[in-house]
Design goal:
The protein is 22% helix and 22% strand. It is an alpha+beta fold.
């Protein structure tokens, strides 16, 4: 038996099985606006994390991979050796931009700057795509002070605004969890033994703690999902595309 594994005949080397919101798999309007897998700096750890920009980079998604050894997919009459299952969930790009705003605020001593001079990273050049996301254009004022000079806008990090924004995020998360009967808080409950004592929202998530809020690193909620293969090909609109470029999960 040879050490190298041979790919089965008919298998597609550039496809992955994923569960994703429909917005993440929209068919690109132009060839240069295809969805893009890329690594960006994690706002909580500063380390590389895999993300996905949808068509035209209008929305950001975080990608998590479920992987077990000795796992493959049977697809039609072929076997796909890459047995990973990718989970794609919406991510608020403001969390990633916060990292650069805080960094610039310390280095530039609170000076106002254009965003494209703040969101710069030689290790992760695709971070500039964050500025194309619709949520950034609409909600950046929630975490920055803004000045306009002519047609140009200048921003600087605002801790006060950011904490108010994070508290709203936490409150929305609590409501969403409660609506799905999911218990949150410092105590861990077994599904069989649930305490009848009611816990307030503040007790559950520590809304009054600025430190805990500043450690938040992701946002967004799950929406309707599509389950299928991910490939890139200029074909009819569907969730199965053939890969034409170097955008791929590592």
């Amino acid at each position: 038996m040879h050490g190298a594994k041979q790919r089965p005949a008919g298998a597609h080397p550039g496809q992955w099985v994923l569960i994703a919101p429909e917005a993440a798999t929209e068919f690109p309007e132009t060839p240069d606006s295809e969805p893009l897998f890329t690594k960006l700096r994690n706002p909580s750890t500063g380390e590389a994390t895999l993300y996905l920009f949808n068509s035209g980079a209008q929305q950001l998604f975080e990608v998590k991979a479920f992987h077990e050894e000795n796992r493959s997919w049977f697809i039609g009459q072929t076997v796909q050796q890459d047995g990973r299952l990718l989970f794609v969930t919406p991510m608020d790009p403001l969390f990633l931009i916060l990292y650069y705003l805080i960094k610039a605020d310390k280095e530039q001593q609170g000076k106002f700057q254009p965003l494209d001079q703040v969101v710069l990273d030689s290790d992760y050049p695709n971070c500039l795509l964050l500025l194309k996301c619709a949520d950034v254009k609409q909600y950046i004022h929630h975490i920055t002070e803004v000045k306009e000079i002519g047609s140009q806008k200048f921003h600087k990090y605002s801790q006060e605004k950011t904490l108010k924004w994070l508290k709203k995020k936490v409150s929305q998360t609590v409501k969403a969890l409660k609506s799905n009967n999911i218990t949150v808080g410092e105590r861990v409950y077994a599904a069989t033994f649930i305490s009848s004592k009611r816990i307030t929202d503040t007790e559950e998530v520590g809304v009054g703690s600025d430190k805990s809020l500043m450690n938040l690193s992701s946002g967004g909620s799950r929406s309707a999902v599509s389950i299928g293969l991910f490939r890139f090909k200029k074909k009819k609109k569907e969730t199965v595309w053939h890969r034409r470029n170097s955008s791929s999960p590592p």
